[in-house]
């Protein structure tokens, strides 16, 4: 005669199955809820997707979401002290130059509004930056005709390479202020590069040098699998 | 294999115990750094606003003294400088005060290192270099041995020829499917 009672092994198995099923359902529901909340709350991104730049490109590059403030993104910080600050402009130039803090502030200052795009998927639209145009510094040092690339050098050996013609674009800054205040430490104080047309890792924080070179020198992230060029609109994230 | 299993279990058990500390460090740091675009895994960055009593002291050094006195800051500044025409910045170890010389308004911009996580991230990202590279390599080798010995620890239906085999296949399928479906690098 069949019995309705299961053996202890079967009961344990059912309990385990039931536990796994409940845990899986809970995970799926939590993930769906989180995803919905994320999608519904991302008003900035929806608005940005509807905009275009002056040259007709979408203002928000593919795969990006808009944020309200810069994210720190780590990196080994350099000294935030302006007494320690020295910016060496060297390489394929006629007149190498070293600027201290006062020397940097004595240069023609430019304030501009631009968008920046991080390779991890966030963008900050309409951020204001103040600093010195790299083009102006390049004119001072006299870039030799054989120079083809610029290498931004930063604290603890960080480097990022940029094509010369892109580095000399009028919106490329050696910046010391962001959104009306001095650069905060996590954002590269006292001075960082700002190259709005490329993913933001090219905009080296804690800047110590600008080297003009004839042959390309892939930088810190470029030698670790990231794209050598890094155009956000072409989604050049990885090499 | 039957005679080998007790040895595999012993090796798996002891390496498992040894790996606990580093696994915690790497797992915590992995979670923290994976979401670096959402938060700063090393520092709690903060801002605070203060107001100095007017009129402000004349001269940058005197202004810095007034700031430290009024805000009861005992540290000695590492730098006092003009960060803009109407702004004096006073730099301390983990924070900077920016004083608007027209209004006396002060923006404090600082960082508090995250307890444990900052050290874990430092180790995980091998920022210390040197000998830690050997430790990290050794840990990776430990994990390989743990995974390999784990495959052969149990005989029968719960082992590699039964449930264990299915679970191993599932585990391998995750990265394989991800690479295949995402198009890979």
Strand content of chain A: 25-35%
Can you count the beta strands of chain A? 11
Count of spatially separate domains of chain B: 3
Q: Provide the structure class of chain A.
A: alpha+beta
Helix content of chain B: 40-55%
Task: Give, in spatial order, the strands making up the sheet with the most strands of chain B.
Answer: 1-5-4-3-2
How many strands in all of chain B? 5
CATH topology (fold) name of the largest domain in chain A: Sulfite Oxidase, Chain A, domain 2
Q: Largest sheet of chain A, described in full?
A: 6 strands, mixed
CATH class (first level) name of the largest domain in chain A: Alpha Beta
What is the assembly state of the chains in this entry? Answer: heterodimer
Could you report the average pLDDT of chain A, rounded to the nearest whole number? Answer: 90
Written description of the protein model:
The complex is a heterodimer of chains A (239) and B (185). Chain A has two domains: 8-41; 56-234, Oxidoreductase, molybdopterin-binding domain (Sulfite Oxidase, Chain A, domain 2, Alpha-Beta Complex), CATH 3.90.420.10. In chain A, 24% of the residues lie in helices and 25% in strands. Chain A is built from five helices and eleven strands. In chain A, a hairpin with a 2-residue loop joins strand 8 (173-178) and strand 9. With 185 residues, chain B is of the alpha+beta class. In chain B, helix 1 (5-34) crosses helix 3 (117-124) and helix 1 packs across helix 4 (131-151). Chain B starts with a helix and ends with a helix. The mean pLDDT of chain B is 91. Chain A binds chain B through residues 71-74, 76, 80-83, 101, 105, 118, 120-122, 176-177, 181-182, 184-186, 189, 225, 238, and chain B through 33, 36-43, 45, 78-79, 81-84, 87, 89, 91, 96, 98, 107, 109, 111, 121, 127, 185.
